[in-house]
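Lecture notes, unit on binding sites. The following record was shown on slide 14. It pairs a sequence with 2-acetamido-2-deoxy-beta-D-glucopyranose.
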Amino acid sequence: MARRYGRATSRFALYPSTFAVWLCFCLLFASAAEAGLYTSSDQILLLTPENVESVLVNSTAAIVVEFYASWCGHCIAFSPVYRSLAEDIKEWKPAVDLAAIDCAAEENRKVCTSYGIRGYPSIKFFHAYSKADSTGQTFRDFPRDVRGLRHRIIDKLETHEEPWPPACPPLEPASQAEIDSFFETNNVQHLALVFEEAKSYIGRELTLDLLQFDNIAVRRVLNTEESLVTKLGVTEFPSCYLYYPRGNFTRLKVNVEARAFYSYALQRLPGVVRSGKPAPVTIDVLTNNTGDPWRPFNRSRVYMADLESTLHYSLRVEVAAHTVIKGKALVSLKKYIAVLVKYFPGRPMVMNLLKSAKSWLESQVGDEISYEAFKEILDNSAQSPDTALPEGVRWVGCQGSQPHLRRYPCGVWTLFHVLTVQAKNVGGSDPQEVLSAMRNYVHSFFGCRECAEHFENMASESVAEVDTLQSAVMWLWSRHNRVNNRLAGALSEDPNFPKIQWPSPEMCPTCHMVKANGDHKWNLEKVLSFLPFYFSSDRILTDYLEDESQILTRQREKHASRQLALETEKRLERKAREALDLMMHPVTSQPTVQEEEEEQEEGEEPQDEAVADEEEEGGEGAAAAADEMGGKTSEPNPWAKSEMDVGQSRRQAHRKPSIVGMRMRDVQEDIVDLDSFVNQHYKAKALRLSASSRVKQRTLQRKEEQEPRPVFGLGMELDAGLGMVGLQPMETDFELNVGQQRKQLQKRELTGRYFGEELNHRGRWMSALSIGFSKVDISLCVILYFLSSMCLLAMYIFFKNRLRLRRVKMSLP
Ligand SMILES: Cc1cc2nc3c(=O)[nH]c(=O)nc-3n(C[C@H](O)[C@H](O)[C@H](O)COP(=O)(O)OP(=O)(O)OC[C@H]3O[C@@H](n4cnc5c(N)ncnc54)[C@H](O)[C@@H]3O)c2cc1C
Ligand SMILES: *[C@@H]1O[C@H](CO)[C@@H](O)[C@H](O)[C@H]1NC(C)=O
Ligand SMILES: *[C@@H]1O[C@H](CO)[C@@H](O)[C@H](O)[C@H]1NC(C)=O
Ligand SMILES: *[C@@H]1O[C@H](CO)[C@@H](O)[C@H](O)[C@H]1NC(C)=O
């Protein structure tokens, strides 16, 4: 996470509440950061004259500072090492943190001078609770590798006298006596003992690696501690044992006796959770948390349902945030769609839709398009056969244990990986093609702006090195792991799906190995064969996908009902015009003739009838499908009933198109456009929640409103139910009563020239005046009123004329 200000300890406590301030701060100073060798995406505190004191003085953690000059070659060469060190000892932060300052920057010169810096790079160690006049201890001839630096840092940490950094556990070797009485004084579930030689650092490293985890303690035991060694029968050094009360113990099973493997295994022991994080929850709690029935899935597989959900969300929600798409965004969209057409391993129906979107985009000559027009293509308004992008989201492998966790961003990563792998497998021409399309997409559309910025930082730094299709796959994998490292323990981490360096040793044992010095190392060859296998198109599971025929039927139905709504609207408009005409030319008008003419004008009428009929047959299936959307079949849905009698109400409405009343409203409701679909789901959820715990829900809501969402603070609000951005806030929706929502939906559909404008303005008092009547009812009343007065007028004129005639006749001789 971006950090620039605040000291190690306070950062944890202040995190949620000051997040927004934080972001502003980061953005404000972003330009300064980019000039140096490190950016806010590296897990290094960037020092400035403003924050240097608050970071270094009286910090509860020890701080290691690199003083560098951005122009110095040695510093540039050293920067990747320092960055890797930051990743490597990320878990140690509460005890020891890394910082850096660019002494080449004019504004920092004074700070560097005051710390007595003469050569670059210099590294200084500041003890916890350093005084204001402390200039730190210099690392002389420091090693230029991560392992050496790490050991230096441990050595320095051990030189702490009182006060010892409060978050740092004891690092000295444990004795038999201490272990015997351990559980009397410590309330933890697991005690891990690392048996090693005196010169080994593994025990201390592991102690620090687990300092942010609850329910576990780690102690090192030297091979010279004979009583313990014989008691546990230890023969191998290093090795790790789990020790329990009453002297029970087991050896920790790992592929390789090395720090990374121990660390991974210990963090995953039952009951071990990151401090301050809720414990992982079980499936039935998951269902309660998310309001969505939990869909069991295999964690080591990729699901098409996630990919389609991601496409839906990206094209219908994220891109929709731009009412007009132009310039760079338009280029990004074109590239994104083009790459999808080329490499997305989708169902034929989806591929057809992507193809038509691509050719439509290519046919646009102007330098901007409206989202409305693009949406027509996405919704297949032209009704091309076997063409659709399923609406709604249905997460499977990307389900989170809370509504705001995982989902869409998880889907985006998965889609990225699938596309790079697919490009490699089918043999694309340009190694950069997929990466640059995705980079542009993220830059232009990805709702989490902070994520986009971090991603852009990473991409601009190294994506140019990608020169083969394989290296594109590997680049994305390693950058994703870097993001995972940065986000491990962040608020966006799902306790049920901890961020790990992926793939785990269980998933791909051969991907992991150790260097000669015992540090973890990826077996890149194995990773390179694992990734194409894992993300390959023929391994993608199709569980939980809705049937193509159902999707197509629903699409057709939606199209037809929209047509019907348009038709009704036209008809009402015509009636209104008629009434106006009558008023203008009361005597000359001849209603019957005009009606006939108008009927003839409508050439499309019979065609529409056919569509609607066809739909009546499929009506019930479609209604069920609509109900099932988003996988909601098993949930009690207050709207289900009205959805079930779609067919019926439509039939009625179609036979008597001029009768507008309650029935008509049903029809309006059935139009499953995205907005109303989302609205309905929200409503359903809100009602359900309110039934069970109205008060509780509200207070929770309030809380969420006050605290900015930590991860997606800038613009990206992952929603409660669907992982949606930019929807109406739940609270407002919650307040709307059923009638109002109906009106809202109706308003959306009936925006004819005649009704739309005026009613939008007057909607409020109109609805107050006409409880139980719709605007259509009122309009009809007005029309009838006019007709009857015209009739009276006509009669009056008629009789008057007759009288006059008679008088004329009588006056004749
Ligand atoms: C471009 C981008 C930038 C982001 N930047 C930020 C950010 O700056 N801050 C922030 O808080 N969140 C950011 N996010 C969101 C964050 O990365 C996660 O996507 C989100 O927290 C959900 O995490 P997850 O547990 O579902 O796993 P994800 O990281 O989303 O991964 C999804 C799935 O991909 C697989 N996977 C994991 N690692 C790898 C790998 N290295 N290679 C291949 N497959 C892997 C796993 O099966 C995993 O379940 C970003 C997302 C994206 C797409
Ligand atoms: C340093 O911090 C400690 C605890 O955080 C506090 O008690 C002490 O007063 C601080 N000292 C100074 C000089 O700020
Ligand atoms: C989940 O909710 C249902 C009812 O809403 C309740 O009966 C059940 O006990 C809950 N389960 C858990 C684990 O909270
Ligand atoms: C999940 O998938 C992996 C790989 O295909 C398989 O080995 C494993 O048995 C599956 N697990 C379950 C629970 O189905």
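Take-home: Confidence is low (pLDDT under 50) at residues 1-34, 591-683, 693-739, 741-770.
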